[in-house]
C-alpha cells in the first residue's frame, strides 16, 4: 500500500506564497501580543490576559479557579504563542509575527528555570527537615 503514495509530495513543504499572503492580510487587532504574553506569564492565574483580550466570561472562570491551579496558564501560554488565542473578534494580535519566537524561547527558559528551582527548593527542604 505504501508504494501507492508519492512520499516526496506527501512530506513536501505545503506552505505556499498564497498561504503567506492570506496570513498577512488577516485583520490585525489593536491588542498587542507582547502585552498579552506578559499578562499571561505574570498575571495568568488571575485571568488578566483573558480580560485584556476582551474575553471577560472565561477570565472570571480563570480568576475563580486560579488559572485552573496553573494548568490553564500553561495552556493559554501555548495558545498565545501558537497564534491560536486571539482577541474577542478573532483578529490576530498586533506584533505576533515579530515577537512570538523570542517570547516562546523566553517562556521555555522561564518554565525550565521554575522547574529547576522547584526541584532544588523541594529537595533541600526535605533534606533539612529530615
UniProtKB/TrEMBL annotation:
InterPro entries: TM2, TM2D1-3-like. It is found in: Membrane. It comes from the Bacteria. It is a multi-pass membrane protein. PANTHER family: BETA-AMYLOID BINDING PROTEIN-RELATED (PTHR21016), TM2 DOMAIN-CONTAINING PROTEIN 3 (PTHR21016:SF7). The chain crosses the membrane at residues 33-53, 59-82, 103-127. This is TM2 domain-containing protein. Keywords: Glycoprotein, Membrane, Signal, Transmembrane, Transmembrane helix. Residues 30-78 form the TM2 domain.
Amino acid at each position: 500500500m505504501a508504494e501507492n503514495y508519492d512520499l516526496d509530495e506527501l512530506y513536501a513543504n505545503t506552505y505556499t506564497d498564497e498561504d503567506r499572503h492570506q496570513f498577512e492580510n488577516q485583520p490585525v487587532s489593536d491588542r498587542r501580543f507582547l502585552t498579552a504574553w506578559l499578562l499571561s506569564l505574570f498575571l495568568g492565574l488571575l485571568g488578566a490576559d483573558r480580560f485584556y483580550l476582551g474575553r471577560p466570561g472565561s477570565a472570571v472562570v480563570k480568576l475563580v479557579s486560579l488559572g485552573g491551579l496553573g494548568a490553564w496558564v500553561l495552556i493559554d501560554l501555548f495558545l498565545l504563542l501558537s497564534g491560536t488565542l486571539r482577541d474577542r473578534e478573532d483578529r490576530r494580535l498586533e506584533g505576533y509575527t515579530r515577537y512570538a519566537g523570542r517570547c516562546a524561547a523566553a517562556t521555555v527558559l522561564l518554565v525550565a528555570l521554575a522547574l529547576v528551582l522547584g526541584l532544588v527548593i523541594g529537595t533541600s527542604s526535605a533534606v533539612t527537615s529530615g
